[in-house]
Amino acid sequence: MLDDVFRIPTRALIRQGGRACFHRLVTTSPLLIQVQSGSKIVMSDDKPLRLEAGDYGLLPDYRPLTMENIPKAPQKYQTLALPIPRQLFEDAYDTMGSVAVPSRPLPASTSRLPEEAAALFEYCSQPGNLARLPGAIAKVRLMELVTWFALCGAVLGRCESPRLEDRLRQMIEADPAGAWTLAHAARMFNMSEATLRRRLSAENTAFSEILSDTRMNRALALIQTTTLPIAQVALEVGYDSPSQVSARFKERFGVSPRHVRSGPEHFERIGAEIEQSGADALAR
């Protein structure tokens, strides 16, 4: 089980006004999700998973995913996401005994959740409900929810060997606005800058790429889940001005923050990051 100091998960209500496809999104915690309006297409290894309004799914941790969120007029796209520590999945599966755990962590959908399981998801997702419980009881409730998802076909795959990139991403995610440098990160890993640079290169990445990507993933989350002005979003992820973060955001995702929140009157294909027709073809 987890340590006695148990951090209660905080749900995220993701809203999106414009249709867009986001590539190489990485989450540092597994997510149980319910699409509440619109449609969601998740791709991993070129295998699409399509979720419609009312569907539940499981998104794995530390696995780059392509996600296309599709609003259905007149409503915005909306999904409820509940992050749950990986250890609780593993504890729940150990308790079940007979669950077949996939060898790789991949997105999964459930067959229709029973009414009791759907009610438990709603309960765990409501702000304050789990926080009012003793930590041990909150863990049991979450493990019960994980068990329901597993019984309905959504099982989290085995944890792959953690990469240095994943550990660095998790550190930056805890303080994306921090004054991060290669030297600072190297000290936290108790290694030289040259060693950190070499080990990241062996994983086909670099410190600056991970820093920028982690910040942009966080910016996307803030734009989708809050009403913070873009100027405040910029400060939250370590940029000095809204124009700077908007430029980086559009470079990374192919659309502007305004498109994500409000959506254009007519969808515009912007750059290689928007692959609407291809994702649709795979999903049908």
Automatic annotation (TrEMBL):
Gene3D superfamilies: Homeodomain-like. Keywords: DNA-binding, Transcription, Transcription regulation. It holds the Pfam family HTH_18. The keyword Ligase does not apply. The keyword DNA-binding applies. InterPro entries: Homeodomain-like_sf, HTH_AraC. Residues 166-263 form the HTH araC/xylS-type domain. PROSITE patterns: HTH_ARAC_FAMILY_2. This is AraC family transcriptional regulator.
